[in-house]
Write a structure and sequence with these properties.
Helices cover 22% and strands 27% of the residues. It has 194 residues and is α+β, with helices and mostly antiparallel strands. The strands form three sheets. It has a five-stranded mixed β-sheet with strand order 7-6-10-8-9, with helices on one face. It has a three-stranded antiparallel β-sheet with strand order 2-1-5, with helices on both faces. The longest helix is centred in the first third of the chain and has 19 residues, at 2-20. The chain starts with a helix and ends with a strand.
Length: 194
């Protein structure tokens, strides 16, 4: 019976934490978190079940991908899934709380951003919830303006090994050829429309 309760209560705990924190606003609509990886700038609601002294708290992930939580201290959240972060927090809390049950929910995806610049109608940053491809990013940017060279688009992607350039030929993709160019963007990608 305890095992069934432990499995069944997790979605209820997340809902209770959101209600308890007053986050029933439509702006906090449910965000898919199955395989979503946390990014710096994301807002996360963290609660510890059955501890009245530790109310659920919304935390913004710092630019270095870390966050601070009572009893645990600083913990790295960037790049982890919600489940990975929850399990790590429960493991660290076992030193202080017997059988801790941590609830982690992404409330706002603010760090998962790609940029579209250059000859588009609405250049800027776009939140990816959870992901968008190049064509979708161009649509969010209002498409190319009359001066755009749509077959010269590049995607600049940064990684620990440096930056690399991915080519995107709009004419080919729009005609159904070489669709592998229409990659899913990653956080921090910059789409440049010359």
């Amino acid at each position: 019976m305890l095992h069934l309760f432990r499995v069944a209560r997790l979605p209820l705990l997340a809902a209770a934490c959101l209600l308890g924190a007053g986050l029933t606003n439509p702006a906090f609509a449910e965000i898919p978190t199955t395989d979503y990886h946390i990014h710096p700038g994301d807002k996360i609601l963290i609660g510890l079940y059955d501890d009245p002294k530790m109310q659920p708290v919304e935390i913004t992930v710092a630019p270095d991908g870390k966050l601070a939580f009572p009893l645990i201290g600083v913990i790295s959240a960037g790049g982890k899934t919600v489940d990975q972060l929850r399990v790590e927090m429960e493991t660290k809390l076992k030193k202080f709380v017997s059988e801790p049950v941590v609830t982690v929910a992404v409330t706002q995806v603010l760090g998962n951003v790609a940029y579209v610049i250059g000859q588009v109608n609405k250049p800027g940053s776009f939140i990816m919830n959870p992901t968008i491809n190049v064509l979708q990013a161009l649509a969010l940017a209002g498409g190319g303006n009359p001066y755009a060279k749509m077959d010269g688009i590049i995607i600049i992607r940064s990684s620990s090994g440096g930056q690399r350039v991915l080519n995107f030929r709009y004419g080919q993709v729009a005609s159904g050829r070489n669709l592998e160019q229409n990659v899913n963007l990653e956080a921090g990608d910059v789409v440049v429309v010359p």
